[in-house]
């Protein structure tokens, strides 16, 4: 796992194309352009600008040259909040192997040791037991449920809300 680079746009687009059906239940409906190298290059560029500003970190999980997972620490807020949001997915062919758990644990450690954050938040669809296990293993605890929180797979869906407090 490492920070995404501009040169990863092709690998990221290929991963989204490869996982389009697999991710469709867990993500927003995407425009056709989303699956192109051009779209992914622009997205990586904007996330790297945010990283330079201290507002986020985009990570890629790789198996050789193939990108097999994406993890975003986003919306970093400093001041008294010292918090960020976490989003992630792992390639369907690699799911269930503990890769997401290991990657999220690394992100939690980085958020604490390198970024000095106090807390990270994440959310899952109510029925996403796999992602909930990933969060529990990394020390996240459920703090609530948000009705119609995000528009996923074309409809507003309820989400469980989680956080890990890093300075306890």
TrEMBL record:
GO MF terms, alphabetically ordered: protein-N-terminal-alanine acetyltransferase activity
GO CC annotations, alphabetized: cytoplasm
Keywords: Acyltransferase, Transferase
Positions of the N-acetyltransferase domain: 1-162
One Pfam family recorded for the sequence: Acetyltransf_3
Family: Belongs to the acetyltransferase family. RimJ subfamily.
Name of this chain's protein: GNAT family N-acetyltransferase
